[in-house]
Write a structure and sequence with these properties.
This protein has a five-stranded parallel beta sheet, with helices on both faces. It is flat. It is an alpha/beta fold and 311 residues long. Bound molecules: iron/sulfur cluster. The site of iron/sulfur cluster has 15 residues, from helix 1, helix 4 and helix 8.
C-alpha cells in the first residue's frame, strides 16, 4: 500500500513559537508556570508540558498573584488581560502574531465607527478573544444563512474580519454573501486566513486526488484540522480525523491502495511518524512525500525569552 504524506503538514510557526515560549519560561522561571487554555489544541502537547510543571487553567481568576502566566496562541480578550493585570500576574503573551494582526485590524474598523462582522466559529477561543477586543458593535457569522439574519440596518458602515483557520472556499462564499447584502462593506478578503491554514488546505486537496483514504492527525477541537478533513471529504475521499495512531481502525484500510496522511497545525510530527509505523506493522507500505511549499516562516519570541534578550 502506498502511504503519501501531504506537504506542508503539521506544526506552523505560531504553534512552534507558543510551545517554545512555554519551554523557555519553564527554564527561566521554573515550575509552576500557568497557561490559560490549552497552549495549542493538542492533548499530546498539553500532557508533555503538564508533566514538566505547567498548570493549564481556563480562567486566570484562580491563578496565584504574581505567577508567570502564558496566554495561548489563540489570543485573549481585553477583559482577560485586565483580570490578569488586576491579579498582578507576570503575563507572557503567546498569541500568534497572525491572530494579533486580526485583532489590530478589527480594532481599526471599530475605531472608524464601523460595525464589524467576524466570520468564524462560535465558542472557539480565537473567536472569543477577537470579539472581546472590539469595543464597538460586533456580530459573528459562520454561514451564509447567518448573513441573511444579521440585525444590521442600512445606515451602518460595515466591515468584516475572519478567523485565521477557516476553510478558504467556505469563507469566500460567506464574504460574497456579505458583499451582496452590504455593498459598501470593507474587509481583507480571505487574507486573514493564515498562510499555514491556506498551505495545508491546498496540500490536502492535492493529496485527496491521489489516495483512497485521507487520515488527518489532529485534535477534535482543532479548527484547522477539522477543515482539512472536510476538504478531503468534499474532494470525494473518505477522511478521518484521528488524535493519534491508537485510534486507527484497520478496517478503514480495506481496499485502499493508497492512504494519504496530513496533520493539523498543532499536531506534532512524532504522531505522524507513529501513524506511519503503525501502518507499516499492518501491511507493506511504500512511503512518498508530495512536493509542496517549504515553509520558512518563524516568529520572534517575546523579548524576555529571546536568546539575546530580544536584541
Ligand atoms: S494556524 Fe496560523 S494563526 Fe494559528 S497559530 Fe498557526 S500560524 Fe498562527
Amino acid at each position: 500500500m502506498k502511504v503519501i504524506l501531504a506537504q506542508p503538514r503539521g506544526f506552523c510557526a505560531g504553534v512552534e513559537r507558543a510551545i517554545e515560549i512555554v519551554e523557555r519560561a519553564l527554564e527561566k522561571y521554573g515550575p509552576p508556570i500557568y497557561v490559560r487554555h490549552e497552549i495549542v489544541h493538542n492533548r499530546h502537547v498539553v500532557d508533555r508540558l503538564r508533566a514538566k510543571g505547567v498548570i493549564f487553567v481556563e480562567d486566570v481568576d484562580g491563578v496565584p498573584p504574581g505567577s508567570v502566566t502564558i496566554f495561548s496562541a489563540h489570543g485573549v480578550s481585553t477583559e482577560v488581560e485586565r483580570t490578569a493585570l488586576g491579579r498582578d500576574l507576570h503575563v507572557i503573551d503567546a498569541t500568534c502574531p497572525l491572530v494579533a494582526r486580526v485583532h489590530i485590524e478589527g480594532a481599526r474598523y471599530s475605531r472608524q465607527g464601523r460595525t464589524v462582522v467576524l466570520v468564524g466559529h462560535a465558542g472557539h477561543p480565537e473567536v472569543e478573544g477577537t470579539i472581546g477586543r472590539l469595543d464597538g458593535r460586533v456580530h459573528l457569522v459562520s454561514s451564509v444563512g447567518d448573513v441573511a439574519e444579521l440585525d444590521i440596518d442600512g445606515t451602518e458602515d460595515v466591515a468584516y474580519i475572519t478567523q485565521t483557520t477557516l476553510s478558504v472556499d467556505d469563507t469566500r462564499v460567506i464574504i460574497d454573501a456579505l458583499k451582496q447584502r452590504f455593498p459598501g462593506i470593507v474587509g481583507p478578503d480571505t487574507k486573514d486566513i493564515c498562510y499555514a491554514t491556506q498551505n495545508r488546505q491546498r496540500a490536502v486537496r492535492e493529496l485527496a486526488q491521489q489516495v483512497d483514504l485521507v487520515l488527518v492527525v489532529g485534535a477534535p477541537n482543532s479548527s484547522n484540522s477539522n477543515r482539512l478533513r472536510e476538504i478531503a471529504e468534499i474532494a470525494g475521499v473518505p477522511s478521518r480525523l484521528i488524535e493519534d495512531a491508537s485510534v486507527l481502525d484497520p478496517q478503514w484500510l480495506d481496499g485502499a491502495r493508497a492512504v494519504g496522511i496530513t496533520a493539523g497545525a498543532s499536531a506534532p510530527d512524532d504522531l505522524v511518524q507513529d501513524l506511519i509505523a503503525t501502518l507499516g506493522r499492518l501491511t507493506d507500505i511504500q512511503l512518498e512525500v508530495l512536493p509542496g511549499v517549504e515553509e520558512a516562516i518563524h516568529f520572534r519570541l517575546p523579548a524576555e525569552l529571546a536568546p539575546n534578550g530580544g536584541e
